[in-house]
Fold this sequence. Notes:
The protein is mainly β. Helix content is 8%, strand content 40%.
Amino acid sequence: MSVQSGGKTVWRLGKLAVSAHVLIVALLLVTPLGAQDTVRVGITYQPGVRPGLVVLPAPGLDSIQAIVARDLDFSDRFEVIALTQPPPGASGGQTTPLNYAFYRALGATLAVELAPASGDFVRMRLYDLAAERVGGEVTLALERSGVGESRMAVHGLSDEIVRRATGQSGIAATRILFLNHEDKRIWRVDSDGAGLVPVSPAGLAVMSAVWSPDGSRIAYSQFSRDGGKPIVLQTLGTGTRAVLPIGATKQNITPAFSPDGRSLLYAGMSEAGTALYVLNAQDLCCVERLTTGRFAENFSPAYSPDGRRVVFVSTRAGGQQIYSMAADGTDQELLVPFDYGETGNSNAPEWSPDGTSIAFHREVNRAPQVWIFDLAARRPRQLTSSGRNEDPSWGPDSRHLVFVSDRTGRRQLFVVDTETNRVRQIMTPSSARLPAWSRTLLRSH
């Protein structure tokens, strides 16, 4: 819960007790705040403009300070300025009151201050350096080591700083699923590349994992000894697994949850082709076929954010093209056509959380590259060009994408900022495939 005290917001976060196979979802989302709690002077967010920000030294909170500074850098919303010297008259890393002129001279517009509070609480203050005032303050219970599962709460603090400063959503309190080539298991990793943990059971080969909207479950295809590929629904908090009813199809791939988590789309393979099916993901019943699939392949479905439409790949006209349809299977139409001039087959479409774009990969000169299709302009834009780049998945801010690339010699995860094309690598134990980025993993508790 949150408590208002003297105009300040206090967060009380429940203690975290999760195993390596359990996803944190029982944290606290920030409560709505008044206008006085959001810094606006001089830093109204504009694409391509990054205000300078400094994370002040935090004696006794070095690990937390390092995580927050890295998160804010990875948000690509700020120019994070590293301190090479303390301000004049600094004691314990900073001055009291804050030396506004010193940090402005470094090019900073904002400053973040982290300090120990009573007990196991930590206080964060966000300073508007131009107006020389505190723009917002929160106090929260936080493990000060900044290690293990407690890192997720720190990521939540980073996202709150992004929200207060820019009005935009953050990507720090999220995780990414991917298929690890060496053990054929699904692993997950924090958005900053830490916290690598296997999720699916050892000894089972799986593929195509996706998150449920609330982050409590994942679905994936499992390779069975009889040659089948059932869809498995796994609850992360308990490890419980359920094989979904698949009707007449024996091999089933590319599952996708609806935005409300009630339905699950997937592609079912048969001798006549591959068709799209939907089932009730809550009651595990009621399979319904949405496409004919006769002598054509229809796969890789993904819902729109409002759940009303679906994008998918189909070979019904020859090459792999991206189509869209209503969620009930009606109103099917070609969305991103095959380009017979310069590029080839398209695959792995995913709708951005803000509903404006479709990310996918398409062959260019026999190598897959990541593209974005602007739905309003009806125009594709190539995002990558170096190496083989495929399987993009959107972050919750509709600005960042995670994808797989072999540009460093083996397939690894990379995150790209679609506004600036800045790219960073996420290291995995071996070659990685098929990433899926979660929505924010914090919720009211």
